Amino acid sequence: MSEDEEGRMSLASGRSVLITGGLGALGGPCCAALVEAGGRVVVNDILPEQSVPPAELDRLAGYIARDAETAEAADEIVERAAELAGGLTDVVLLAGRVHSAPLLEQTPADVRDVFALNVERAFATAQAAVRRWSALGQPGNLVFVGSWVADVPWPGVGPYAASKAALRAMARSFAREFAPIGIRANVLAPGIVDAGMARKQWDTEPDYRRRAGRAIPLGRLQPVESVASSLLFLCSDLSSYMTGATLLVDGGASLYPLDPEETS
């Protein structure tokens, strides 16, 4: 084993991490990276526990099937996560939703649904974590999972892009207000990830594949492992002097548009 591999295996040693939305296509590799690096990981998602493959549960410190739709529910999720993991050092707000459609086909209900999960539930869970850390006099680390589209008007996901811009502003507010008591907050902003909806659209929608293929200077969809590695960095001592920052890991997608055809 190389020194780099040995170092990575201990990056999350001593960390107790709650990840919301951890059963998704992106959540699985992120959880695996943290566990392999020595972290104790608790996942919060909405699938009933009996629906989760046993192999998935075995690697975790715990699983909480609960929707953080109220402040009370968020408090209970955070407290239960701390109980299962033997403490709580990091909270990763990964749960999210996208509704893909042209702006004139998006309804107010679509916008509300996207903001309810991407912003409101993230806020409630972060708030619950900060209350716990503050009451115990402990430091803490919040990682909000945003997106490159917070800055780029990518066609078809207007409400999603707006929700991620709101999430970044909220993360920076947490960072500003709670830095004096040792609580940090940063944003991880991936690009067009080779998983979930993006992978499906890449495979089934020629227009999407054409646009996405030109929009990524590195020329390929983002490997989920690059997102997991970036999250591991933010949940380790390597990022201990970061707060209020956005770690943009997008293969250059935010440089879009790249050619005259896209600007005409």
TrEMBL record:
PROSITE patterns: ADH_SHORT. Pfam families: adh_short_C2 (PF13561). InterPro entries: KR_dom, NAD(P)-bd_dom_sf, Sc_DH/Rdtase_CS, SDR_fam. SMART domains: PKS_KR. Residues 15-191 form the Ketoreductase domain. Belongs to the short-chain dehydrogenases/reductases (SDR) family. This is NAD(P)-dependent dehydrogenase (Short-subunit alcohol dehydrogenase family). It comes from Microlunatus panaciterrae. The lineage of its organism: Bacteria, Bacillati, Actinomycetota, Actinomycetes, Propionibacteriales.
